[in-house]
Structure formats: C-alpha cells, structure tokens
Amino acid sequence: MAIKPLRFTLMAAATAALSAGAALAQVSDSNVRAVNLARNWAVNNNGGLSVYRPAACMFNTSDGGGSCLIQTNNPGYTFRFLGGAPGWQQEGLRPTTETEVTVSPDGRTITNVGYNGTPR
C-alpha cells in the first residue's frame, strides 16, 4: 500500500523538476548575455563594484532580468533598473542611480543608453 503514494510522490517531484527546467530553458542565450552586458555596463560606468551595485533583478539571469527587463522587441532587450552603494537594497537604502540601457537582439552590444543618472 505504501508503494503507490511513494510512486505518486516521486512522479510529482519529477514532473515539477522537469517543469522548472522547461521554464528555465525559455530564457534564450542572447537574453542571458544581454542581462550580463547591461549589468556590467552599469557597474563599469557607475564607479565599479566597490561603490555601485545594480538592483538584484539584474543578477537574475535565469529569468532574463525579471522586473528589470522592460521591453523585448526588434531593437533588442531594454532594461531599466536602480543601483546604489553596496548593500543599498538589502539595507533598505535609497538608490542613487537609475539606468536604462538597450542591448542588441544577440545580446552582444549596447545599442542605446536611454538614461544613466539620478533616479527620476
């Protein structure tokens, strides 16, 4: 009798794992490259990691930038995100910088910097 519930539990766990893998697979390589490129551009242009950290959403490569990805279309991937001193988000501090950047559809080139300055 205990074998049926165990088999069902194992099948449910396997299905959940496969579903999670399928969801992760939906993020294209170009989207992951775009997130990384946009984040690194912001770090480099806002003083480096010793003084600036982008919002946590820019580290979410498994979901393509999450809430920071505001548009995906022909021109590419557009990200808008806040940043600030190291630990700003975890400590509940105000951000000091807002960045909006568009990356080419292949994720390899910054094609437009719409904004990089004081949060609007």
Report a brief summary of the structure:
This protein is an alpha+beta fold and 120 residues long. Helix content is 33%, strand content 26%.
State the helicity in percent bands. 25-40%
Helix and strand content put the structural class at alpha+beta
Low-confidence stretches: 17-24
Strand content: 25-35%
Oligomer: single chain
Question: How many DSSP H or I helices?
Answer: 2
What's the end-to-end separation, in Å? 63 Å
Whole-number total of structural domains: 1
C-alpha-based Rg, rounded? 19 Å
Backbone shape: globular
Profile the largest sheet. Answer: 5 strands, antiparallel
Q: How many extended strands?
A: 5
Overall pLDDT metric: 87
**SSE order, one letter for each helix or strand:** HHEEEEE
Note the topology.
Blueprint: H1 3-25, H2 29-45, E1 53-54, E2 69-73, E3 76-84, E4 97-103, E5 110-117
Q: Could you please describe the fold and organization of this structure?
A:
The protein is an alpha+beta fold. It has one domain (28-117). Helix content is 33%, strand content 26%. It is built from 2 helices and 5 strands; from the N terminus they run H-H-E-E-E-E-E. The protein has helices at 3-25, 29-45, and strands at residues 53-54, 69-73, 76-84, 97-103, 110-117. Strands 1, 2, 3, 4 and 5 form a 5-stranded antiparallel sheet that branches. The N and C termini lie far apart (63 Å). Mean pLDDT is 87; it is low at 17-24.
Write a concise keyword list for the protein shown above.
5-stranded antiparallel beta sheet; 120 residues; globular; 26% strand
